[in-house]
Amino acid sequence: MHNPSSIPVPTVPPGRSWPRPPACLPAARLDDPPGGARVAVAGLVILRQRPGTAKGVIFLTLEDETGVVNVIVWRKIYETFRRAVIAGRLLRVTGRVQRGHGVTHVIAERVEDISPMLDLLLGGAG
What we know:
By secondary structure, this protein is α+β, with helices and mostly antiparallel strands. The protein is built from 3 helices and 5 strands. Strand 4 and strand 5 form a beta hairpin. The protein is globular, with a radius of gyration of 15 Å.
């Protein structure tokens, strides 16, 4: 397990908006970017929820080596990335940080199934 504070994260000069990261932000560093910042996160899908009362919204929980990330997938995004949301074991999600009531979420804009990367890792463990 990596020490989250040792993972480099871009710094933001005063007065500038949060830059789009070139790589995924670890779960443990999700408090660093300001609300509304565009981030990319990745992790194993440990929970998918589609409550009947949520009007087509899907809630995902992803886990990486530093913690968990809560992801909200609105219906329009779900329709675009349906296969990845339903079948992906390892996902990369790009979206906006939203904070409220002590909880941080990523509002998905793009969902990518990167499960083949997991297969490569498992194959290398041999």
